[in-house]
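1st attempt posting a full record on here, be nice pls
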Amino acid sequence: MTRIITNQLAPNHTNRIVTLLMFFFLSLSSYGQTAIDLTNKVEIHTKINELYKNGDWDTAKNWLVKAIEKYPNDAELRILLGKYYIEKKQYKKALFELNKSLEFNPNNLDVKKLLLHIETVTQRYSSAIGYVNELLESSPYSKDLWLKKIDLYRQQGNPTEANRLLKRLSDIYPEDQSILRDINYQMEVTIDQKNKQGYYDEAIELNKKLLKTNSNNIKNYLNLINTYIKIGDYSNALIITDRGLNQFPNDPDLVLKKLSLYDQSQQYEAGLKYINQQKKATPSMNLDKQNKYFLSSSAQAAKDGSLFVLFGKLLDKNPADTEAFEIVFNQLVSQHQYDEALMVLNRHRAAIGTSKKLALKELNLFKAMGNTSKIKSITRKLNTDYPNDLDLEAAYAQISIADAKDAMADSNYPLAIELWKIVQNHGDQEQRNSANTGLYNAYFQSANYNKAEEALNTLLSIQPQQANLYFKKANLYYLLNRPDQAPLIYEEGLQKTEYKDRFYALIGYEELMVKIIKDALENHAIPVALNYAQHWLTQDPLNKQALEYAISTAATMKKWDLMKHYAAIATQTYAEDVTFKIKLAESIQLGNNNYEEALDLMIQEIETNPYHQKSNAAFIATVVTYSPQLLKEKKSARLLELTNKALRLDPKNKEIKYLKGLAYEQQKNDSAYYYQRYYEPTLLEYSSFKQRLNYLHQKSLKNEINLTHAISNFDDNSTKLNTSSFEYSRIGKNQYWTGRLNYTGRSGGQGIQAVAAWNKKWKTNWSHQIEFGMANDYFPKLIAQAALNRYWSKDWETEIGLGYRRLTTDEKLYNVVVSVSKEINDFRLSLKLNQFSLDKNWFYNLNFTGKYFIDTPKDYILFQTGIGSSTDVDVIDIQNLRTFSINNTQVGAGFGRLLTKNVSANIIGSWHNFKNQNETVVHENDDNSNDTDITTPAIYKNFYTLYFNIHVAF
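the predicted structure (as tokens):
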């Protein structure tokens, strides 16, 4: 048994394996056939179009997604993806892709044609007409575009504008038969509508125009003849019939129409004569039946004519004779002698009195005559006199409907409202439904929104499942200034909307919410606008415009986390929309003050889309905002990196160039002058900015000369000392070399000191200074010193240095210096401690210096003070004053000024006060003899010095 079962199952099992293998190899084959080289754009476009042509849409889409990841700014790829979504009827996604394509290529007409197709299919006719207008700008004489625009107006329900454009088009192309045919067709449609609506006079006038433009269509003659027959104008009907027979001789339809008119007017003899003429002219036309009918009718007419004459005489003698009245009245009506029939009816009514029967006869007579005003007045009177007659009530309601529609067309809404109320009271169920709709429209158009709401509520009670009524009510609530309730009502309608219609219903919801949010924003009710946007997103979570409003309002309220939340959703949903990425970066930047994370997002975007203006502008703006923080934190290298990226995007941006100059200035780079000169100062800034540029120019020069002269004297003018210095510096990259000559002339001779110095800034935050000097007299015979500087964050700087001096007395002086400096806005504060070792004794000097910078570091006001057991080392160096082991105090002040872009100067004065404890001071003798050392008594003395300095750079 088992073997039999196995044998039975084996073939099926084998077939399955074969099928799977075939499917596998076919899949591989298919994949191989559709392989696309993503580095070749031409091949991508060609292969995708081939796949579309073969109907392999999904494979094409998969390749497109990969291609767009590689080329996100390729407009043609976006078009191809848009075509895929159109094929799949995913119009919202198609709109997104095609609009993205327009961003990259705004003048692509093919994209606009596709957008026109989508807007037409989704019945957004106003937008579709807008795209037609854009296309017409490029092709103003395109007949197809004009015809498309005309068709859109018709679909929109605006035949008046459509017909106007069609007439205009016919003027442009007067010989175009297709346009003339379209005009004629539209006239035929309008004529048919007028006939159905009972506007026969208008239909006749249009038909006459149609005959003038198109007299070769027999249908136009027949339609006009039939309209004349409807209103009982048989004479004109016969005239048009004869015109038609002149154009189409012996046409069977026109021949029969003429015979029917003879029959209608009981012209039997004329009819028989015409039949005989036609038999001779057209023997093939079989008119035997008509001939027999006219012979019989002629005989009957002769007989009736005799009775008509007899009863007419009886009625003349006795107008109250009912039998005679009936025969005469009916005969006159059958012969279309309506005026005579009306006279007979009036005489009979005067004789016997009015009655419902006679009133109905009169009504029918006026209907045959086409007298609308009489029909309406008689119907109203009959309805008043016989209120229980349902037929009369229905007729009364029907004429009220017609009158109400006329009033609506004339914008006479008060009259229309009264008429619709009549229909409500007297019409059947269908008529009352029409009246409810009419009342709503009349109240709405007359801006009586409260009454419109009542009418709409009545409609909702009858049709509670009609979603469109909820949509109307929501818009009505908006107009009634109930914005809180309007969305809720619309959402009730959304719940009753079928899934296939939800897309279009959400478009209406979007339009409503946009109006509500715009109103809130115009009233500066930003929190309210945010609440509406959030509510909107509960119904349509990925709606682009709702996300935009949520992001912008959250930003205005500085709710950065909320802004970031919605921006993240928008970025994920609309990955190609750069605006959302910009907003996400802004939320990160503003919320957490995290510029770096925001810049990372922006840098990714500008590298992907380097030509997108919005992302470029956002990146540049962020760099501008971030730059003060970077400069404050001394992160000039990062600022240079960012400004370089910004200048690649906008090479002419002067603000970015200026910021780059500030970064270079912080790095003490000569390029600071080049970039900062692009800044455009205001009138108030001009003077200080020009001064700063002069300073930067001076700093960019490689050679410097300093000329200094110091004048010193005691308060008793007992001794005057003068010292001059000449200094030359050569500036290199991150270092400079200085040579200095100091000179003093005294009564005992001259003193000259030569000093060489080297300053070097390392790549890290360190720098060093090394100085060596020699002198013959008055100055220390030998100077050797070195210092090491460290630059810290938050504008702190420290220094430690060692020095050696061999004084003129061959004493050896060692010193250790430690200083700390801090920059606070425009101030620089320094505290320096010098410790000296002389003859195994330790001395100190503590000095504080403060500088206030006005425009540049060359424009300043200086103040300094010091205290110690020794004078400062700078005073010792020029051998003007040596006071050790006593109290020394010192104050000083001065100022510096940049005079031109090459020259600056400063003047500094100092005042030393010390207690002279039998101190030996060098004294110049007036008799030119050798200087003598004078030992002074222990008193407090003052020592003054003025320093004059000129600095020249070239």
